[in-house]
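hi! just following up on the protien thing from before. the input was this:
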Amino acid sequence: MTELELWTYGIVGFTFVLYIGIAIWARAKTTGEFYVAGGGVHPVANGMATAADWMSAASFISMAGMIAFGGYGGSVFLMGWTGGYVLLALLLAPYLRKFGKFTVPEFIGDRYYSNSARVVAVVCLILASVTYVIGQMTGIGVAFSRFLGISYEMGIIVGMGIVAVYAIMGGMKGITYTQIVQYVVLILAYTIPAIFIALTLTGMPIPQIGLGGTYLGDGSGISLLGKLDQVVTDLGFKEYTTQVMGSSLNMFVYTLSLMIGTAGLPHVIIRFFTVPKVRDARYSAGWALVFIALLYTTAPAVGAMARLNLMDTIQIGPVGEETGNLVYDERPDWFKRWETTGLLKFEDKNGDGRVQYYNDTNPEFAAKAEEFGWKGNEMVTVNNDIMVLANPEIADLPAWVIALVVAGGLAAALSTAAGLLLAISSSISHDLLKGVMMPRISEKNELMAGRLSMIGAIVLAGYLGLNPPGFAAGTVALAFGLAASSIFPAIMLGIFSKRTNNIGAIAGMVTGITVTLLYVFQHKGIFFVKGTEFLMPELGMGANWFLGITPEAFGAIGALANFTVAILVASLTAPPPEHIQHLVEDVRIPRGAGTATAH
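and the predicted 3d structure came back as:
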């Protein structure tokens, strides 16, 4: 066993023992503890748990990779995901806590005085949560298979087992305290390597400042970002600091979709039911934003430095210069290890035994490439998701740092998976079973139903991780789109519009989620499901046909459709009962509230 494997097994094993120990200590004994941790979590602790709940494998592993290759355009994730918490703190969290219920569908069902609205909300919640959890299970499988030497499938099974112990036993109570530990693990795992690398490249130990610092690698006195711009443009890529994702309109809509998707994700919203008072919900959202910002302000530095390290290590300059191309047979060990995962692939297109990595789609670079004897970009696959996990290896950091990054990635995936699974479980046991089908069920039986629902949700998540559907690559974007287009508008109108009635809310949710699903899955008139193509000639439109907006950004358009239909239908039908209108007014007064009820 190598030194890296020893460190990885030791650190990951230690964190798993902590998670299981907390589950045993924080075992839920009532439905209140299972659903909302008894409503007594301190706002600072809840902010930390919320940050871990929110920062999934996408935040920990993927975001910096997207920034590394997307440049300035990657800022949509920083602005969208953090902006969503501003919306939560100002517009949702205190009012939902004032309402004093356990779940989002329960709020929608009571506010719109309709079990049908509650059931529609459950369907939307499950669709968004199940879609999102696929990405977490995939991240768990990749991390295990790459660093612990076990198969992808076994990695998912181990991850399922760990989540099952602390989620089924502890419910929200166990998940909350586990997520606090997971936050500490993931933030240390993210920032420590960033400090090492920032020191090496710029001499500055604070990555956020080092990003704008002077690059020390060649003694030229150029800034780090200036050096990166120079490297990427010399090889035919777009300038890093001005690169965008599509049009300006798409950037705006993408950011908005991520914001309202964040504010509409049920596993995030449910966390604000766990604090004692309305004021605590605001404080909790504020602290969550602080804890999230520690990682999110570090991500641009991690992305930029990882891109520069990757290019420097591969030595991309033309053959014959002082820094000629990397000889493939002399490639470093990290290169070999990531090749085995399939996330990094090389193809020697000109047979010279060297690695060429450049933008072969840029016509302005074609003559230069021909002069160098390059026949195409030979790094045929450089997956975004490897950047955070591979960066410490590329920078040749100590084994314990690399192992810590693995533990952090697993903590991020496990914490979010647990929150999503609890949201799915509570929607089934509390909203469908107790709220609609068996309103007189005892608390003991409801708690048992909650645990059984959790088992079912974990099995489903594991199955989807082992057998991902054909659209798995876009699951995170799809989850945000579904939450943005269905749940967020219903909550906003429920809090701020006395005139919105049950018919309008149901019509809006159905319209929003349908429009979004059709746009996301539609590509050149073909509907993709798990590798099977269903022709839809009645659509007959190419990708991004609506104003050039990408499917990942379409949740905001779905939300607009939801708002429009809900308001229009409500204006044409009978207004809500008077007591519901009084309820809306009462909810908007941010004064103290009692403990959550199970009614």
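Residues 311-394 form one domain.
The two ends are 55 Å apart (CA to CA).
cheers
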